Amino acid sequence: MSTSILIIDDDQSLCELLTEYLEAEQFNVECKHDGEQGLDSALNHEYGVILLDVMMPKKDGFDVLKSLRLKKMTPVIMLTAKGDDFDRIFGLELGADDYIPKPFNHRELLARIKAITRRVAHLTQHSSPLQLEYHGLALDIASRSAYLNDQAIPLTGTEYEVLYQLMKSAGEIVSKQTLCQSVLGRPLVAYDRSVDMHVSNVRKKLAQFSEHTFIKTLRGSGYIFLTA
Fold first, then answer.
1. CA Rg, the chain, in Å?
2. Regions of the chain short of the pLDDT cut 70
3. Pick from 66, 3, 79: nearest CA to 39
4. From 2, 94, 117, 132, which residue has the greatest number of CB atoms within 10 Å?
């Protein structure tokens, strides 16, 4: 089954090029050229991945992402200006799954998209109600959902995968390199704070429901999910 991709970008020439390229890779592609139309489509249809530009008319990418995350956790890759660290970090804080700076290599974008779709396919192939649980925090592997003290935690797909990787290795150090490869499907590079931001987002969401410290940072080593 092909994956549907929504591109929200006011650069129509880029949208046409990406559509041609991604359709050749067996994706179904839909394009919207302003934030309001893009958000409407994102909320009212189901997509495997959304490619979201930052600077757009009517509603910028950050506003679109904030509104989307109130209702849906569709995977989002932000299209950011090259070298603009603020856009990248802010997008991740708002719940973007990944980012890629413009101008980008189409093959790199394809790799990012496939990494997300592989992750979703891997997690949804579990049919048994296998769970991981510590200190009232439970992950239901079959439904890819998280609960803390019986309260549902609204995690994005990437945040869920970060927590899953840490919990399945509970009590052991998981390096940022390992998390980046297993969660984002790519090697960790210098100055890439994506993993840090996703872990930070998970911590903030868990802190809304419990004062317990679940994830500890080991500077220079990585992260550990605490079992005690």
1. 17
2. 1-2, 82-83, 120-130
3. 66
4. 94
Asked if residue 36 and residue 117 are part of one domain, the reply reads yes
- Please state whether the predicted TM-score (pTM) of the whole model is above 0.85: no
In sequence order, the 6+-apart residues with CB closer than 8 A to the CB of 33 are: 8, 9, 10, 12, 15, 56
Structure tokens at 69: 């995350």
Tens digit of pLDDT for each residue in 102-133? 889 999 999 999 988 887 665 555 544 467 88
Q: pLDDT tens digits for 192-218?
A: 889 999 999 999 999 999 999 999 999
Question: How many domains is the chain built from?
Answer: 2
Q: DSSP character for 34?
A: S
Classify 5 as helix, strand or coil: strand
d(CA 76, CA 171): 31
Cα angle 209, 46, 122 (rounded to 5 degrees) comes to 70
**Closest by Cα among 120, 146, 138, 221 to 179:** 221
